[in-house]
């Protein structure tokens, strides 16, 4: 690649098994009961998003983890803290945007989603967080064909 | 819901008596703002870089509740897909006339460019589409009575002028009290002031560059040519004409250093006299500013400097997107990303320790909409009526009941805070 990478040598982690979740038949035999959203489900939605810079998933790069996801199903709130691979990662807002778009597509509209970089994990933390949580900024970003294209590429792997 | 309409619970004094079947028109639109209009002959669609002005032409939309007049501003205008509308020429809606009363009309952006944008929107819009369908099948607030359905009965708005200049989408527009000046602001960080010329010509008289980030909203003083702007840079700026020089300048910046907001300021509103101003922010507070406190200073247009006098906090749980100060009864309404609308009143007896005015919540409506409430506006002449606009594609009109008569001058509602509805 001719372009200089921001983080040329990311640490790759193993992908955890999904099995514990897929083999959950309706234990109580009540198939109509609404299943509550939990961190595992939210994590399943975003774990396979591809990093904008590397051919690895956000889970493999430890950018997202189940532990950093807060879900309040009754209060319809989701909070996600993600950890960019390096402190000065210029891709942080793009990663956040990917997570936001993915959840916009995956969750019922009642959910309010807050996406922030993990405290201390980014040099311009406040600016990144502010941008990711301003809905007009997000809307404007998604009107930029170039950005939408990049987001789509990152999301393709998570939507199979 | 219909039951609630006929049998309000005794303590309820804030409930919708009219829910326009607005999705008939707006099912493809996210409603961003609703403005009661008083006398403007033209209306503005601030969606894209270009600004289109519309005059009313032959359009009449009938059967809106008597006397309720609205101007609507929307985020997404999906060209061509709204049945019965012609977005390419400036789709229309809104408005009803009561004899002898102000007119109100609405416009939707029919700007070229939206048609292309739609594709991008679609690509992120699967969820939105589901939402649209939901809206069509059943509004969370219940089905509107048939006589309140908004209907286009012929005619259409005509675009009479396009104001080009902003480099990014236009966020907000406002006419001054005299109707000869129009202010616009944009994500491009600038505020523009336009002067109306004969023959629907608009001349840009000033481009104000003071903000360091997106400008979210502009509003004029109710009587003076004093403009305030609210921004993503956490500040409010006050602009006035500079003496004889026919130039505009920033006369005051209300920042966190002056007890201002600590995050994006989304909206501002004046009280009836223009001596006080309230602002709302992503920092979850409302702040009240007064220009009376120090009459010795003059900050342009004959007004004194603005001083922070009160912070209303601890109520909304998410970003406060909009605030409006009733000209009729002094009540402040606020709308938030927590889906709620809240009403605040000036306490008659502020604690003597500070001498500063304080404000108490006198009513709240949780789940006023099924998602973010983007805008609230009081009716200009009927003190009971409030309109709200939301990402749930609906505009709702609310009637403040019960106690509203008991504090006509913005007095406190004794011991009746936090009324659950």
TrEMBL record, chain A:
Superkingdom in the source lineage: Eukaryota
UniProt cross-references to SUPFAM superfamilies, sorted A to Z: Fe-S cluster assembly (FSCA) domain-like (SSF117916)
Coiled coil (residue ranges): none
Keyword Membrane attributed: no
GO biological process, one term: chromosome segregation
Pfam families: FeS_assembly_P (PF01883)
Domain MIP18 family-like: 41-117
UniProt KW keywords: Chromosome partition
Family: Belongs to the MIP18 family.
UniProt protein name: MIP18 family-like domain-containing protein
Organism: Klebsormidium nitens (Green alga)
Lineage of source species: Eukaryota, Viridiplantae, Streptophyta, Klebsormidiophyceae, Klebsormidiales
From TrEMBL, chain B:
WD repeat feature ranges: 163-204, 208-239, 258-299, 366-401
Domain of life: Eukaryota
A Gene Ontology term for the protein's cellular component: cytosolic [4Fe-4S] assembly targeting complex
A Pfam family assignment: WD40
Signal peptide limits: none
Alphabetized SMART domains for the sequence: WD40
Biological process annotations from GO: iron-sulfur cluster assembly
SUPFAM superfamilies in alphabetical order: WD40 repeat-like
Residue span of region Disordered: 119-144
InterPro entries documented for this protein: CIAO1/Cia1, WD40/YVTN_repeat-like_dom_sf, WD40_PAC1, WD40_repeat_CS, WD40_repeat_dom_sf, WD40_rpt
Keywords (A to Z) from UniProt: Repeat, WD repeat
Family indicated by similarity: Belongs to the WD repeat CIA1 family.
Its job: Essential component of the cytosolic iron-sulfur (Fe/S) protein assembly machinery. Required for the maturation of extramitochondrial Fe/S proteins.
HAMAP family, sorted: ciao1
Protein's recorded name: Probable cytosolic iron-sulfur protein assembly protein CIAO1 homolog
């Amino acid at each position: 690649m001719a372009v200089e990478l921001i983080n040329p040598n990311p640490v790759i982690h193993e992908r955890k098994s999904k099995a514990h979740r897929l083999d959950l038949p309706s234990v109580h035999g009540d198939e109509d009961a609404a299943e509550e959203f939990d961190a595992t489900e939210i994590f399943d939605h975003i774990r396979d998003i591809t990093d904008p810079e590397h051919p690895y998933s956000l889970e493999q790069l430890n950018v997202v983890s189940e532990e950093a996801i807060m879900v309040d199903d009754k209060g319809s709130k989701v909070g996600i803290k993600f950890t960019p691979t390096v402190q000065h990662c210029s891709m942080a807002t793009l990663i956040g945007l990917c997570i936001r778009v993915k959840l916009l597509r995956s969750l019922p509209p009642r959910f309010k989603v807050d996406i922030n970089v993990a405290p201390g994990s980014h040099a311009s933390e406040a600016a990144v967080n502010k941008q990711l949580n301003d809905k007009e900024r997000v809307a404007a970003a998604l009107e930029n064909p170039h950005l939408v294209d990049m987001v789509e590429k990152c999301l393709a792997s998570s939507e199979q | 819901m219909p039951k609630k309409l006929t049998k309000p619970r005794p303590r309820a004094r804030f409930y919708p008596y009219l829910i326009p079947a607005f999705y008939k028109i707006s099912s493809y639109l996210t409603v961003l703002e609703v403005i009661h209009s008083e006398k403007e002959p033209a209306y503005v669609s601030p969606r894209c870089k270009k600004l289109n002005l519309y005059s009313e032409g032959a359009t009449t939309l009938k059967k809106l509740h008597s006397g309720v007049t609205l101007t609507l501003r929307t985020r997404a205008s999906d060209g061509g897909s709204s049945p019965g509308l012609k977005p390419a020429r400036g789709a229309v809606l809104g408005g009803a006339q009561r004899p002898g009363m102000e007119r109100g009309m609405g416009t939707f952006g029919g700007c070229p460019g939206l048609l292309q944008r739609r594709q991008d929107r679609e690509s992120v819009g699967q969820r939105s589409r589901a939402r649209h369908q939901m809206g069509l099948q059943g509004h969370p607030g219940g089905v509107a009575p048939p006589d309140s359905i908004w209907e286009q009965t012929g005619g259409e708005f005509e675009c009479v002028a396009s104001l080009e200049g902003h480099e990014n989408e236009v966020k907000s527009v406002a006419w001054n009290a005299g109707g000869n000046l129009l202010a616009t602001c944009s994500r491009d960080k600038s505020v523009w002031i336009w002067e109306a010329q004969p023959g629907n010509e608009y001349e840009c008289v000033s481009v104000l560059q003071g903000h360091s980030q997106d400008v979210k909203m502009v509003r004029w003083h109710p009587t003076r040519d004093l403009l305030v702007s609210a921004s993503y840079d956490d500040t409010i700026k006050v602009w006035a004409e500079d003496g004889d020089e026919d130039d505009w300048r920033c006369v005051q910046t209300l920042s966190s250093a002056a007890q201002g907001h600590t995050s994006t300021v989304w909206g501002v509103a004046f009280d009836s006299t223009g001596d006080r101003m309230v602002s709302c922010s992503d920092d979850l507070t409302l702040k009240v500013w007064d220009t009376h406190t120090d009459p010795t200073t003059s900050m342009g247009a004959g007004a004194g400097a603005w001083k922070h006098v009160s912070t209303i906090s601890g109520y909304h749980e998410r970003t406060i997107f909009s605030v409006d100060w009733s000209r009729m009864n002094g009540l402040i309404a606020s709308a938030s990303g927590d889906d709620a609308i809240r009403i605040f009143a000036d306490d008659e007896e502020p604690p003597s320790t500070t001498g500063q005015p304080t404000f108490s919540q006198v009513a709240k409506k949780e789940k006023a909409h099924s998602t973010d409430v983007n805008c609230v506006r009081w009716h200009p002449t009927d003190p009971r009526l409030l309109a709200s606009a939301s990402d749930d594609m609906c505009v709702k009109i609310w009637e403040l009941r019960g106690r509203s008569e008991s504090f006509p001058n913005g007095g406190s509602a004794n011991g009746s805070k936090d009324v659950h509805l």
